[in-house]
Amino acid sequence: MSLMSTIAPPQDITFMNLTVLNDRHSHLDKPQPVRLLLINPRPPDSFWSFRWAMDRIMVHERTPNPPLGLATLAGLCPDHWQVTIVDEVIEATPLRPHADIVGVCGMGVQHPRQRELLEYYRRQGYFTVAGGSFASLCPESLEGLADCVVAGEAEYIWPQFCADYEAQRHQPLYVERGEVDMSDVPVPRFDLLDLSRYGTASLQFSRGCPYQCEFCDIIVMFGRKPRTKTPAQIGRELDALRAQGARSAFFVDDNLIGNKKVAKELLRYLVDYQKRHGYPFKFGTEASLNLAEDPELLGLFRDAGFAWVFLGIETPDVASLKASGKTQNTKTDLLEAVRTIYAYGIDIFAGFIIGFDNDTVEAFDRQYRFIVDAGIQVAMVGLLTALPRTPLYQRLEAEGRVRHEVMAGDNTRARTNVLPKNMSYNQMIAGYKDLYRRLFSDHGIACRIRNKTRHLRLPSGQGENEPLGTQLRLLWRTLLRGIWPGGPTRWWRFAGSLCCPPRLWPLVVTDWVRGLSMRHYVQRHFAPTPNRVWRRAADAMGQLRRRFGPAFEQGSVTATLDAVDDAPNLVLTLNGDIDEEFLHETRRRLRRMLRDRRVRLSLRIECIKTNQHELLSQILEHLVQYRDQVRVYLHESLRDQLSAHALHQVIHFGLAS
User: Fold this and answer.
1) Which of 184, 246, 335, 473 is the most exposed place for a label (fewest CB within 10 A)?
2) Structural domain spans, the chain
């Protein structure tokens, strides 16, 4: 079983809020076609990155999902427009693109990087358009950053922007105040994406959700009445994906079964599609827990080839579910519902929340016991976050319980904008970190696997989506780089988790990779930084100073050590005459230092010799594998001097002026 074909992070499909950046001096006089560059900003490291698995285990390093919103937006452009999509997760963003318009989308978690890109391209003279789900919720947050903001669903307002742009009368803000008929959604331009770089492709069947969860922004953006495409539309999208070689697809719907009757029609179509084409796809999606109450629906999910489903379980505490409006989860026994879904051969990923008003310090043990008993390995436990315009935000704002200094958007970090009611903020943060440490201990990982495999019935043929050779290489790397370093305790836990039918062993290995990858994330972001990590960064700085004292004395090089998110950050500045020996030695020592994922590097390049540009490019190439830890600040004057190759390496790390 492939790790990335069964893991998909939340998707931003409100691409309609793109920030468009234009060449404000000459673009209006340029002949057609209009050249549009669409950028998906690189998000920060998260659980969904599975960075350890990508770096250490996966045979072919891939990222989970392509930017579906941008591909759909490209399908809405006039035929004579030339559209390019750049996904910063997998490739560098061009510093001087051949584009008339640059559009930058983004979810809340991507907003800081979205701002960086918009500010940069606008300074370069491009005309700007901004969008994405965060722009839909908070268009005012992008005021002054872009020439134009597009907020809401794009199917009607984006073509209007395109027409206005060509007529030289574009508006600063386009807002969709109605609802889009899903039959008007075009087939996304999958041909503009390199799908071989992604673990699974993405598509969308519906928008909207019938439920009224207090904390959710879905009904704010898309409404409570699910709107759907026709099965024939989905068939055309699957045909396009097959033509691009995709074999795994994630329905990004926030609740695929929001309208069960229509969902069943789609699933029957998918069953027939799979039979006609030799079962080319394995699917995943998001759904509500009442999936477990409908045997016919479960059978259709299984027969259509759904390998996994993401459920918003939130909490096993019934009082919290009722108070938050998640009443659909109170109508059945949660543990039995999970096991019912397992019985149909469907794996479960799930979201959980800490910080409801009824939560006390006992909530952490309650969540731990349920997640372990349910055998849910991919358990995204987040702190309750008040998203703008949601009922939760409005209520807590009135109660004075919103922490405005914390930006809402990423609820998997150890911080939130919500003040809890029945415990202190510090108690909540400490308990949250400890919950994750327990879940992703060797004991926690192994117990969940055993509890899952007792109930999961793997459909015939599942787990064969990767060639045997690939599966064997993945197994070898898991044993060598994941299981062996854990010592006898982990060996014993791993062996015990194999006490299940052999046909489930690929799933066992995959779940260990998932668990260990999330464990590494927890260690990087939640655990206190050990003194030895600080010493390693200090030693690297000290060794460079001792070895190249004259360069430091002359001011050609400076080095300081500060903290970023309580982790050591080495700030290295190059400003003048640097010899090649220094650059070679720096490359070696920085790589050694950055092997510890908790260390950060800020590399400031103020001045460097022309004949050293290629060597600088080589240094940056070596640092690409540590891109989540590195920031490069390049002086404006060097952008016209460095080779294009070097510049492309710089942009991997987050360009700053």
Assistant:
1) 184
2) 4-175, 204-439, 531-651
Q: What is the pLDDT of residue 649?
A: 58
Q: Can 204-439 and 531-651 be said to share one CATH topology?
A: no
Nearest-angstrom CA–CA distance, 183 and 234: 11
Residue 377: pLDDT over 80: yes
Domain 531-651 has CATH 3.50.50: no
Look at residue 220 and tell me whether its pLDDT is greater than 80: yes
Q: Report the CATH number of the 204-439 domain.
A: 3.20.20.70
Beta-bridge mates of residue 202: 250
Quote the strand ranges of 211-270, DSSP E. 227-228, 248-251
Give 276-306 pLDDT, tens digit per residue: 999 999 999 999 999 999 999 999 999 999 9
C-alpha distance from residue 601 to each of 568, 591, 627 (Å): 8, 10, 10
In angstroms, the Cα distances linking 312 to 161, 326, 414, 454 are 36, 9, 20, 22
**609 or 498, which is more confident?**
498
- Looking at residue 280, its pLDDT comes to 92
β-partners of residue 301 are none
Structure tokens at 280: 């080319």
| Mean pLDDT to the nearest integer, 433-459 | 95
Q: Tell me the C-alpha to C-alpha distance, in Å, between residue 445 and each of 429, 515, 518.
A: 22, 6, 10
Q: What is the pLDDT of residue 654?
A: 55
Report yes or no: 575 and 556 within 8 Å, Cβ to Cβ. yes
Task: Tell me the pairing of strands 82-87 and 206-207.
Answer: unpaired
Q: For residue 533, give the nearest of 572, 486, 567 by alpha carbon.
A: 567
Tokens representing residue 87 in the block: 């996904």
At 284 the three-state DSSP class reads strand
Alpha carbon distance 519, 428 (integer Å)? 20
> Residue 640 has what pLDDT?
66
Residue identified by tokens 């390199």 is 194
Beta bridge partners of 150: 174
Q: Which residues partner with 353 through β-bridges?
A: 382
For residue 270, which of 246, 299, 292, 294 has the smallest C-alpha distance?
Answer: 299
Instruction: Name the band, by pLDDT with cuts 50, 70 and 90, for residue 432.
Output: very high
What residues have CB less than 8 Å from 576, skipping those under 6 apart?
554, 555, 556, 606, 607
Which of 459, 466, 469 shows the shortest CA–CA distance to 510? 466
Does the pLDDT of residue 12 top 60, yes or no? no
Query: Per-residue b/e over 62-92, b at no fewer than 16 CB within 10 Å?
Result: bbbbbbbbbbbbbbbbeeebebbbbbbbbbb
